[in-house]
């Protein structure tokens, strides 16, 4: 069983994901270079955060056209697991593997802070380690994470239950995209995503994209392990099918 | 050299050279310099590159220590941190560019300091930034603040290096000249450190990275209109950063440095290709031949002068081993970067620079640097110093809670989270304690150890008494590190001052350096790198003397690191150190009464040594939940801050204490103090250890409740933590009209 | 330069304007609109912040340049979920 972490020239969370898979979960992991057109047998493919090719046009737009993404598409269409985190999520949107698009954050600023997420699906390969309704704390670090989709498609996305994580208050209340900040000036839905969407999956549930960074909260010493179950679920799912 | 303008004294002066410096270069060359040679000389002998006004004082710094492998003189200093690893770090100013164009100025400041670090073979793992702004109401200030913060963020975030700490201050002394001091730290294996020393006759010089444009060509490019048809294009242009190229440069450089194909490597920073090539050759006592026609250009038509002085960003010069060029090129091409062979190392000690078939410069490298001017500028105590040092009237704080709230409500004392939320501080997953604490704590993965990082300076103290202010900056950094259990291994500095040709400024500089040096010796912290930034003034208004100190410490075991905020109800709170009436230069007088007067609190170095040792010992034993140093705003502010950081992440935790001192002293800034919170079962051990180590320690109360309550001499300060937190958390965004 | 051109050899400048689709909230435009109002410019009802590209190209005689440019937009320059665009073709090289 192999995990592959795709490396674009501007990836900067590649080593963090590698570290969790390899050193925390003891998995066999390999880096996959953006110019390659093979996943070299990887069963779980992670598109990590970063700035792929500088993201000067739109986040993830150029990465979506890279040779490795053709291989990722084939893998996904064959039912293989694909996880896009942050910039990786943006690539999945730009490549059409997941629906919707990202705009600049509501306050137009890059935001690096902990957010609260509610788990909406606990039956996916990535989320079996959580339970529905559970509230997680996870860091975000992005300037373009303001998810949007057309009203009708959004509705079908919701109806199909393809929203995996939503931005919520610490108590688990969904945070509307236009909610006013609290008295400390904080927004629970920092980027202003429609329906507070933080992560979605495809129909089959083998492709998932999310803006928050589970790999940054998967070790006890960092004071938060809410992200660990995501990786251990995915790894567990591979072992079941293997 | 016929196509270039004729050089004379007037032109040399317009380049910033003095009469004496001009005759010195003529004498050295045995002729008048060519135009390109004049440009090169004026850059190499500029204050920025030559340290001509500061050198004699900088020699006072202790630069040796048990951990030091490379002190000042390299791109960055190197200290041993054990297990075969070294930490490489430096801080540098980008003040002037940031005032002109805050976004690009700050961004390129970050880019430059990162290059200084990875040039040494180290992978950058953390940044910090020390920022000084004017009053938020000053003209352009909100624009400058927003631009600088966004510039730092966009650059660091893109290259994927976390910004884990730093500091931000506001003072009207910076209304016309803000400060942006950027720090970077990298890690390398001890045996894989690279230097910029050239060797090997005939080894090829490879240019890698971005193309060369007219960016930032020596501001003093003076009477430019007189020597070109196209004078518009000759104006110095703002340097623009490209963090994506930087990211690929980091990867490609670290990649090639793992092979043995490279002899030396140097980034092109201030004075561009000039200082890079001259330094490289100079350090190895070699010569160089450069063929400027081979330099990749962004636009056609650059002259030799422009190519040599361009400060276009994200460029490096690599000295490869002969015959290994293709190997080097392959690595850079893989990362999408351009490589050009632009010259070679020669044996005659002369820099020969060719362009369009002509020799544009032929200069002896060694003599050019050994003959660089060094000045002992006249010094004079500022005329108004005695008056400014007179003991101030200290108004009593009748309304303690009101005074505390008013202090918390200033940008100076309020939370800086609006700033650091714009910086990615958690990428690379080493950030155990990020911005907002006493010091940042970074994990060293695979070991139990960690690094503490901090930057400090109090410019108000430095303005009132530069000697004490210099010492205080070092002492506070040591104290902050001790609060996370870190023992200092070295410091880097950014010495920001006004015009050294003014005797009062040179005096300030001398005194600050003297104070820092003495504190460094007492506290055993070597200075391993640094930078001097003079001429920070507008009109005749100079900035307050600002010797920013950034210090790095080693934490043997991060498992026991205390937090800077309260974490557990029932913990006992202990005040360490003695409190006196220290109000000279205090936040209390400055922010509440607009009084900036008196002598700053004295720094008793032996007490600082004892306090730091105690804090490190208590941390090592695992007896501390909380440790927070007392600085600006004194005990009142420290207690309030200790209640805060927890508030947004969990239930509110208050504190109740009783102290034996006049109420106003809650805001005294006596040095050598800290508060700690200790689980009750360890209290006795902590107090007896403090006694053994000769540190005054008084149990003053306990953690709990929803309020901050301080009783002193019959007065009571009582305020709900949530209210204080709200004021503190929103002070800066409110001041910025956000 | 300046005449609209869709076919032929010689240098052509394609000027592409990309703007947020009208039904999509544009946070940048919104922020600029309120800043303009704050500065005292009355009557600012809406701002859409977009971007523009100028592409200098030399097309073969047989090519439908507009079609090529539209394909560029579709494949890379524009994200049709949130953006719309217009194309203008000009003879010669555009002067800044």
Describe the structure.
- The complex is a heterotrimer of chains A (242), B (738) and C (96).
- With 242 residues, chain A is α/β, with parallel strands linked by helices.
- Helix content of chain A is 22%, strand content 24%.
- Chain A has a single domain, classed as Class I glutamine amidotransferase (GATase) domain (Rossmann fold), CATH 3.40.50.
- In chain A, helix 2 links the parallel strand 3 and strand 4.
- The N and C termini of chain A lie close together (8 Å).
- Chain B is built from 25 helices and 28 strands.
- Chain B has a seven-stranded mixed beta sheet.
- Chain B starts with 8 loop residues before the first helix and ends with a helix.
- Helix content of chain C is 26%, strand content 28%.
- Chain C is elongated, with a radius of gyration of 17 Å.
- The model of chain C has no long low-confidence stretch (mean pLDDT 82).
- At the A-B interface, helix 1 and strand 6 of A face helix 8, helix 10 and helix 25 of B.
Mean pLDDT of chain C: 82
Radius of gyration of chain C: 17 Å
Low-confidence stretches of chain B: 219-235
Major sheet of chain C: 3 strands, antiparallel
Q: Please give the most extensive interface between any two protein chains, plus how many residues each contributes.
A: A-B, 36 and 39 residues
Described by strand count, sense and barrel closure, the largest sheet of chain B is: 7 strands, mixed
Please report the distance between the alpha carbons of the first and last residues of chain B.
Answer: 57 Å
Helix content of chain B: 25-40%
The overall pLDDT average of chain B reads 94
Shape by Cα distribution of chain B: globular
Question: Percentage of helical residues of chain C?
Answer: 25-40%
Order of SSEs of chain C: EHEHE
Report how far the terminal alpha carbons of chain C are from each other: 13 Å
| Oligomer description | heterotrimer
